[in-house]
Design brief:
This protein is of the alpha+beta class. It contains 9 helices and 10 strands. A hairpin with a 4-residue loop joins strand 5 (about 115-120) and strand 6. About 35% of the residues are buried.
């Protein structure tokens, strides 16, 4: 039994979901249909958790504490080629703040509560007790790794692990980018809105915001379809204003869409409707 497999089994026995990494810190392609997270990496594409694929899945969704899975099937020979061990922090109720350089470490020492630290090649991992959504590049040289990602196992580290603070949770809260001005189609038919009442428009915009906010997958497509629906109903009568468009863009950006994606979706919807 090689060192990596021995480490993996020891971690699994302590309830830490693990997986092997090949050269370049890349996971093995255990389940071809699920590569590039094609299965969503979670049951029904709704909640974070192991993939329901019957084989070891791909990347973080392959992490497991089952020794039979770790030593059998597609992993029976993988450990002989493995270059490192990875684990799923969120699967063991942890969050890793990955500090990639000295300036990031300096920032963390000034802004974050002390906790268990693990040295890395260029910086440190700060590990907190508690899981949260993951995000890359929350600040220069700083990633947050917890649910639905993997992190390299670099040793137990030193220091006492502390509860996940709000200061770390706040790092992944996306602030909507400034909404770029969008040219809204002018009124037709003398500018009279055929919907007669402003309540109809207000209700439609509120429903559109809700549809975007509640999207759990295919956010790009949901944003485009929502923009298309709004423009289908209100794009020709001239009742839409930049305030309405700004609300839709803000809802989309809160789901992770960029200003460019919003503008592209809006332009494509205008083109589709011939506006």
């Amino acid at each position: 039994m090689n060192t990596h497999l021995r480490t993996a089994l020891d971690l699994a026995a302590r309830g830490v979901p693990v997986l092997p990494l090949r050269a370049g810190k890349v996971p093995f392609g255990n389940c071809p249909p699920c590569r590039d997270n094609a299965c969503g990496g979670r049951p029904n594409m709704k909640t974070p958790g192991p993939c329901i694929c019957p084989r070891p899945c791909h990347a973080w969704a392959a992490a497991t504490t089952d020794p039979d899975v770790l030593t059998g099937g597609p992993w029976a020979t993988a450990w002989a080629k493995a270059q490192a061990v990875a684990y799923h922090p969120g699967g063991s109720g942890l969050t890793v703040v990955d500090l990639d350089h000295a300036d990031a470490v300096t920032w963390a020492r000034r802004e974050l509560p002390t906790t268990r630290t693990v040295p890395t090649t260029r910086g440190q991992h700060w590990i907190y007790q508690g899981a949260m959504p993951s995000a890359n590049a929350v600040r220069d040289g700083i990633d947050v790794k917890s649910t639905m990602v993997y992190a390299r196992w670099l040793g137990p580290g030193t220091g006492t692990m502390t509860p996940l603070p709000d200061t770390v949770r706040a790092l992944v809260v996306k602030k909507p980018s400034p909404v770029r001005s969008v040219t809204v189609p002018g009124p037709t038919g003398g500018g009279a809105c055929p919907h007669r009442t402003p309540a109809y428009l207000a209700r439609g915009i509120a429903m559109a915001e809700h549809r975007i906010t509640e999207a759990t997958s295919t956010v790009h497509a949901t944003v485009y379809r929502t923009f298309l629906a709004v423009l289908s109903a209100h794009g020709r009568c001239g009742c839409l204003t930049d305030v309405h468009v700004g609300r839709l863009f803000a809802a989309a950006q809160a789901k992770g869409e960029t200003v460019r994606h919003c503008n592209d979706a809006w332009t494509n919807a205008l083109t589709r409707l011939g506006l």
